[in-house]
Amino acid sequence: MKNRLEELRKEKGIRQEELAEALEVSRQTIGSLENGRYNPSIMLAFKIARYFNLKIEDIFIYEEE
Amino acid sequence: MNKRIRNIILINSAFVGVGVLLFVAGLIKGSSFLMPLGAGSVVSGIVKTMRMVKILKGGEAKIKEFEACYDERNTMISAKAGSLSFKLFCLASFVCSAIFALIGMEDVALIIAYVACMLIFIYLVCYWYYSKKY
Lengths: 65, 134
Prior knowledge:
The complex is a heterodimer. Chain A is mainly alpha-helical. Chain A has helices at about 5-10, 15-25, 25-35, 40-50, 55-60; strands at about 1-5, 60. In chain A, strands 1-2 form a two-stranded antiparallel sheet. In chain A, helix 2 (about 15-25) packs across helix 3 (about 25-35). The N and C termini of chain A lie close together (about 10 Å). By secondary structure, chain B is an all-alpha fold. Chain B has two domains: about 1-70; about 70-134. Chain B has helices at about 5-30, 35-55, 60-70, 70-100, 105-134. In chain B, helix 1 packs antiparallel against helix 2 and helix 4 (about 70-100) runs antiparallel to helix 5 (about 105-134). The interface between A and B is small, with 13 and 9 residues.
């Protein structure tokens, strides 16, 4: 699933490690999320949305196959 | 104390206890299998316990870093690796059992087959349990 996580993180001026710490996940998970290799659970998606003060749909782009 | 760390310490303490018993049993019986098994269990349990104690002494930051290693992605990877390992083990058991039977070591083939069947049965019980739970 495509997402704007990297774009939003860079806009906020934070590193992957800082975002990982804030979301209580590992840095590798942030990396995998950003390059689309891993899709977050609904709980993590909500945490991410809350962190950036946006809706889930504004961060994760759902495209039907 | 963090629940995960506490559980790891408890489990490894049990390993140390069992290891000591195995070592002593091996010493009494003069078994060259039980003694190293017990010793290895003790050493492994102590090392893992010491690692947890070090993490606890490292404070909140270290504990958070430790917890992050058990996040959802790592849990998923662990589950996938376990699932694939199980499938490959079943396949390998089948092949090994057949090979041992072909070369005339049917006792060994039987043991391997029994172990594989037991694991498959355990898998079915676990599958049933989780299908009820979810």
